[in-house]
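Listing 4. Sequential folding, example run.
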Amino acid sequence: MAYATYNDVLTRWISEEDLPATEAQIATLLEDAEDTILREFPDLEDRVLDGALPEARVVKVEARMIIRHLRNPAGVRSAQMGAGPFQQTTTYGGEEPGALYLTEDDRRELRGASSNKGKAFTVDQTPSYYSGSYLDASWWGRL
């Protein structure tokens, strides 16, 4: 059972055109989106139930996944149309155009508060008195 509903997708749809899918099709896509999310976050339901992850955030991510798919269901990377000297080219972004997938932003939102765990960091080990080049002879005299 998906967290988002047809109305959640519809209210987030920003286009002059009508939503290009029926309510039943959207319901199926939402189930597919949730399956994709659960593959990476099997503890999703537990985190929503205990309040660690707001349900509204899951709804937002599921709706975003569906809208990405509906904007380019054929999975076209680039389309070009021409009439005489006039050309129009459209390039669709994303890792997998037309597919139901999680972006890094989606993953970061679904990770919740623990999103910084396992991230790389650096520690500057340069001495505080160092301001020049190792080739600068005056620097060696400070040691």
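-- end of first protein; second protein begins --
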Amino acid sequence: MSQFDHTAIDDVIHGRLRLGIMAYLSTVSPAPFTELKAKVNATDGNLSTHLAKLEEARYVRIEKKFVDKKPRTLVHLTSAGRAAWIDYLKRLQALISAAE
């Protein structure tokens, strides 16, 4: 990996809300949709849109089920998502190191 290669930053993760989603899921997975929504300060629709992009990239998996006859959505960070997150952090660290 080159010291300075901003083009290698994963655009799927780099969006502000998706970055927050990935950061939170890297510490708490699975996370209930409502909890994740509160943590990243998003609306239902906005969070759903960004989760769809992460799901398309196979970084997250959405699980829908019923608990006591109430719908519950859990968001899981996949192994591919964790690997992409770690790679993203390493690439950011390389950019930071190049600036020092």
